[in-house]
Amino acid sequence: MVQKTYYPKGSEMPEIDWLLVDAEGQSLGRLATQIAAYLLGKHKPVFTPGVELGDHVVVINASKLNFTEKRLVNKKYFHHSGYPGGIKETSLARMMETHPERVIEKAVWGMLPHNKLGRKLLTNLRVYAEAEHPHEAQNPKPVA
Question: CATH for 17-131?
Fold first, then answer.
């Protein structure tokens, strides 16, 4: 017997919600897995891999994540300019000073599929360093 993957029809597609996640005092890895699951739609009963069923996620207080001192010094972020010898290195402490939003974005991207679907899902993530955000009109539901 061949099992077939369930694919939700147009009328069965769930409503797309807006969720508000407060990052204050939370661990980066645990927060990123929770956000990735919401973006993928794994919390919905009609979850199907390869189908965009997830919600929009707004993350606030990204600058108030919880890290150990050792992690702030030892964790490095790398990017390359494309030229020979063009690798650049940034510590987590420096990244939190300059662009704390990127820390969460990079952690969540590492937990999403690295294909067209993953890139599309990442556009549903909005991260803000402080508590203010411009998405009040969407009435995002707070996530515990």
Answer: 3.90.1180.10
DSSP-derived secondary structure letter, 15: P
Torsion of CA 41, 44, 49, 52, to 10 degrees: -50
d(CA 144, CA 29): 16
**Phi/psi at 85 (5° precision):** 75, 15
* pLDDT, tens digit (0-9, with 9 covering 90-100), for 100-126: 999 999 999 999 999 999 999 999 999
CA distance 43 to 72: 32
The amino acid sitting at 17 is: D
- pTM for the structure as a whole: 0.92
DSSP string, 45-57: TT--TTS----EE
What tens digit of pLDDT does each residue of 79-99 get? 999 999 999 999 999 999 999
Q: Round the CA-based radius of gyration of the chain to a whole number and report it.
A: 17
